[in-house]
């Protein structure tokens, strides 16, 4: 039995990790530390018996130290972060506060309890980061590897790059046992509807425009969130201290291709699921019209990176990581989840 502190565990990826870990490690206790900002949701982890929600801020170093000591925690899985690029452009300060100062607070607490107190107890601080720290790729450039130089282009990616460096520094300077994973674009259940896939799914259901930045040809590697959780599990169990691992989905697609598949999946759902037209009468598909008619091009995002791609060779070779979901199946499963869990996302529409 182990006790894990999961920061941001009521958010999208963290919440999926809580479900994933509870299913596969039923004897472990999961202490979820979450501030419950707009993207955190109690209902995301409701019903997970091993999960205890502590509402608090990762910048509260004393609180983190208390949790590590009183709950006998030897593993931190650090998801908590401001993560939406558009929000980082309009308000960078929150990203500096949470992603940099918050990570430093956690590292200080971990160092104090695990190293300075002299327990000598085996421990692991796993830090979840993003491929966006590497910057933007040209059409023919090789995919990001763990040795790609950092070149962040948004306040969000700059704040995550800073946090990555702090984690590395605490390992090399103080001997803290750390690992870092840099992931590609996640999608799946429980994702707050500001990101592309849930935003476009829910807009399609309500007959709202599907706003496409620029020409829609920005390319991303798409990672089903359960596969990401599988990669984190591998990092925790087989990752080498001080190492970084890139976790990708092996599905490099332009945004327009993703949007077209969303439209096709929504059209297919309305054609095959009884009662869907009555539930969502404003959807074009409810009256037999193509969802693609909602596509609208808008001004491109400032500093919009053109292409991300992940080389996950190191994770495959050293950790045995292999994604198990292709994009077609992952997207279908995601749409089905949102259709079956209206009670989860409906309250978010008023936030």
Main sheet strand line-up: 3-2-1-4-5-6-10
Please report the total strand number as a whole number.
12
Distance between the termini: 38 Å
Average pLDDT reading: 95
Return the CATH topology of the domain at 3-188 and 224-249 and 308-324: Rossmann fold
Give the name of the CATH architecture of the domain at 3-188 and 224-249 and 308-324: 3-Layer(aba) Sandwich
Reading off the top of the CATH hierarchy, the class of the domain at 3-188 and 224-249 and 308-324 is best stated as Alpha Beta
Low-confidence stretches: none
Q: What is the makeup of the main sheet?
A: 7 strands, parallel
Briefly note the structural class of the backbone: alpha/beta
Task: Estimate the global geometry from the Cα principal axes.
Answer: globular
CATH fourth-tier homologous superfamily of the domain at 3-188 and 224-249 and 308-324: NAD(P)-binding Rossmann-like Domain
Tally of separate helices? 12
Radius of gyration: 20 Å
Proportion in helices: 40-55%
Give the assembly state of these chains: single chain
**Proportion of strand residues:** 15-25%
């Amino acid at each position: 039995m182990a006790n894990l502190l999961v920061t941001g565990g009521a958010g999208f990826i963290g919440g999926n990790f809580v479900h994933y870990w509870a299913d596969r490690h039923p004897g472990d206790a999961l202490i979820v530390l979450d501030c419950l900002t707009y993207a955190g949701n109690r209902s995301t982890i409701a019903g997970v018996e091993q999960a205890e929600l502590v509402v608090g801020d990762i910048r509260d170093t004393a609180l983190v130290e208390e949790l590590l000591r009183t709950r006998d925690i030897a593993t931190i899985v650090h998801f908590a972060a401001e993560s939406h690029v558009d929000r980082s452009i309009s308000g960078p300060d929150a990203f500096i506060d949470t992603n940099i100062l918050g990570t430093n607070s956690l590292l200080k607490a971990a160092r104090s309890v695990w190293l300075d107190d002299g327990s000598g107890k085996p421990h692991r601080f796993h830090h979840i980061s993003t491929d966006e720290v590497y910057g933007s790729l040209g059409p023919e450039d090789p995919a990001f590897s763990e040795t790609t130089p950092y070149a962040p282009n948004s306040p969000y990616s700059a704040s995550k790059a800073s946090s990555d460096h702090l984690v590395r520094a605490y390992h090399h300077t103080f001997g803290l046992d750390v690992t870092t994973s840099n992931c590609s674009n996640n999608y799946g259940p429980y994702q707050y509807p500001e990101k592309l896939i849930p935003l476009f799914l829910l807009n399609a259901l309500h007959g709202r425009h599907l706003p496409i930045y620029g020409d829609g040809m920005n390319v991303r590697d798409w990672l089903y969130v359960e596969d990401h959780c599988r990669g984190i599990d591998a990092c925790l169990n087989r990752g080498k201290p001080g190492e970084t691992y890139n976790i990708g989905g092996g599905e490099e697609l332009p945004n327009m291709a993703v949007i077209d598949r969303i439209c096709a999946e929504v059209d297919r759902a309305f054609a095959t699921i009884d009662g869907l037209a009555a539930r969502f009468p404003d959807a074009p598909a409810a009256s037999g019209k193509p969802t693609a008619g909602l596509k609208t091009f808008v001004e491109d995002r400032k500093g919009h990176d053109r292409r991300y791609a992940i080389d996950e060779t190191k994770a495959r070779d050293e950790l045995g990581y292999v994604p198990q979901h292709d994009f077609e199946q992952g997207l279908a499963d995601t749409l089905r989840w949102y259709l079956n869990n209206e009670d989860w996302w409906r309250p978010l529409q008023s936030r």
